[in-house]
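Quick one:
INPUT:
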């Protein structure tokens, strides 16, 4: 006979605790959820572990204050929050831990193509060819796919209905962006030659 593994219902309101301890417990719950999650946790998920009237934003702010002076911080990325090691410790981590960095083994051109996809998505390989003036190899696209930095978008209405490419949530996480609106100013990147005007395609 299978064991009953049902969990007791979570007491969100914690009315038996005084206000200060209740607030501290809510902060600890948010900390535990963020610690256990490998991807950004959205506000609505965090709200499930705290009282109905509790402000997730204020709890996050309080937790961030508690983490001042620690080696990691709370980052708001991809529509949620996650723990992230502070940038100042990146070289120490690379020197002592086998963690790798998914962007380190991308070439400068790989990153330029990734930026072009970010600014022109959804875009086809032909669209990328128009930007860079040369064919973009399937191997390069495969490297970006393998790191979950890009995904497949809607098919283009052109003849043959080629696949288009779009950036992913992992792209936002990798670059510390909350949304695509936080991308650097496009005109500056155009001046640097990283992105260029691409043909507009109607996917409506």
């Amino acid at each position: 006979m299978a064991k009953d593994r049902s969990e007791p219902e979570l007491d969100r309101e914690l009315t038996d605790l005084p206000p200060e301890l209740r607030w501290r417990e809510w902060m600890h719950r948010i900390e535990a959820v963020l610690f256990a999650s490998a991807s950004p946790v959205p506000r609505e998920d965090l709200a499930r572990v705290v009282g109905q009237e509790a402000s997730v934003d204020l709890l996050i702010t309080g937790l961030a204050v508690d983490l001042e002076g620690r080696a990691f911080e709370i980052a708001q990325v991809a529509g949620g929050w996650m723990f992230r090691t502070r940038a100042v410790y990146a070289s120490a981590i690379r020197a002592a831990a086998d963690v790798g960095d998914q962007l380190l083994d991308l070439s400068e051109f790989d990153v330029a193509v990734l930026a072009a996809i970010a600014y022109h998505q959804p875009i086809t390989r032909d669209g990328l060819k128009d930007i860079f003036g040369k064919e973009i190899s399937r191997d390069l696209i495969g490297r970006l796919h393998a790191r979950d930095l890009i995904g497949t978008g809607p098919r283009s209405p052109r003849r043959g209905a080629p696949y288009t490419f779009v950036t992913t949530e992992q792209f936002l996480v990798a670059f510390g962006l909350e949304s695509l609106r936080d991308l650097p100013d496009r005109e500056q990147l155009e001046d640097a030659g990283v992105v260029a005007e691409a043909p507009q395609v109607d996917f409506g």
